[in-house]
């Protein structure tokens, strides 16, 4: 008769605790399978029992497995170590290990069942992404993302005295290009134009408004200057108004003449890109801001 440790299951030839492996002081009689007694008992020649049901290929017959179950609450324990860890019952019973309900316990929910509680959140995120993707909401509303939106400034930034100020900005660029050789041509850069608009409106707001907008770095704008710092040239034309000029070309001519008078050859050579903004203040002064790199 073999003996085994009631804690770790280590087999021993005699009932002579403690256990060689874990030091536990309690042994129990080991269960010997009937087929093992038949093969190894008296008179056996060691040959396998041909009457036994064959074991399927690729499997290992391990015999019954046992656990210690609490008769009060059913809690199963690996070893006979009362009391019950769930209810404190002082007695445990040895029962055969079964796997009923294991398939049910291992069933996993589908991805739809997992995601279902979060569908409203996904819907909101989808709407937000669509608003940004279509341009309905500019990325600049997010801190640190996109080009900063220009400050709200009093006066006119799009039209004044019947003149289109954005068309005037294009006219200024064309007239400056006429002053340059082909090798000194400058492209009109939208990032520099956005930077010029921000700085120009900031100047107008500080002069005529109620706030002092933040001064932002040029690298916050998507311009073509790379690591180069853009050169800036603000000019204010006073004593006249946009309505004093017959059309956009006439206003652009006056602004270009003022820039050439102040900055000379810096307006003709040495740079590759430029951006311009024109804004008419509440008192009629014409604020312009030129950026180049």
What labels would you give this structure?
rod-shaped; four-stranded mixed sheet; 293 residues; 16% strand
Task: Provide structural commentary.
The strands form four sheets. The protein has a four-stranded mixed sheet with strand order 9-11-12-10. The protein has a three-stranded antiparallel sheet with strand order 2-1-3, with no helix packed on it. A three-stranded antiparallel sheet has the order 5-4-6, with no helix packed on it. It is rod-shaped and about 115 Å long. Helix 5 packs across helix 7 (248-263). The model is unreliable at 36-44 and 55-62 (pLDDT under 50). A hairpin with a 2-residue loop joins strand 7 (159-160) and strand 8 (163-164). It is an alpha+beta fold and 293 residues long. Helices cover 28% and strands 16% of the residues. Among the domains are: 111-137; 159-292, 3-Layer(aba) Sandwich (Pathogenesis-related Protein p14a). The chain has helices spanning 34-40, 102-106, 111-115, 119-133, 165-178, 190-208, 248-263; strands at 3-5, 11-12, 27-29, 66-69, 76-77, 93-96, 159-160, 163-164, 187-188, 231-237, 273-280, 286-292.
């Amino acid at each position: 008769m073999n003996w085994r440790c009631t804690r770790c299951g280590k087999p021993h030839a005699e009932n002579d605790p403690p256990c060689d492996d874990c030091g536990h002081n309690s042994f129990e009689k080991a269960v010997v399978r009937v087929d093992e007694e038949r093969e190894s008992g008296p008179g056996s020649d060691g040959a396998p029992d041909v009457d036994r049901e064959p074991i399927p290929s690729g499997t290992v017959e391990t015999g019954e497995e046992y656990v210690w179950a609490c008769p009060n609450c059913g809690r199963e324990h690996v070893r006979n170590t009362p009391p019950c860890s769930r209810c404190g019952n002082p007695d445990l019973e040895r029962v055969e290990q079964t796997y009923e309900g294991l398939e049910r316990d291992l069933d996993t929910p589908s991805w739809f069942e997992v995601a279902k509680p979060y569908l409203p959140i996904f819907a909101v995120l989808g709407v937000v992404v669509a608003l940004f993707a279509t341009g309905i909401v500019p990325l600049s509303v997010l801190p640190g993302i996109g080009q900063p939106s220009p400050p709200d400034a009093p006066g006119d930034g799009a039209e004044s005295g019947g003149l289109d100020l954005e068309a005037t900005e294009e006219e200024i660029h064309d007239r400056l290009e006429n002053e340059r050789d082909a090798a000194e041509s400058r492209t009109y850069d939208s990032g520099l134009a956005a930077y010029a608009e921000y700085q120009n409106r900031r100047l107008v707001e500080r002069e005529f408004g109620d706030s002092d907008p933040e001064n932002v770095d040029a690298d916050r704008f998507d311009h073509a200057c790379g690591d180069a710092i853009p050169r800036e040239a603000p000019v204010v034309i006073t004593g006249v108004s946009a309505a004093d000029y017959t059309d956009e070309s006439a206003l652009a001519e006056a602004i270009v003449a003022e820039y050439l008078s102040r900055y000379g050859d810096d307006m003709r050579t040495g740079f590759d890109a430029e951006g311009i903004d024109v804004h008419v203040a509440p008192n009629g002064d014409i604020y312009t801001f030129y950026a180049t790199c």
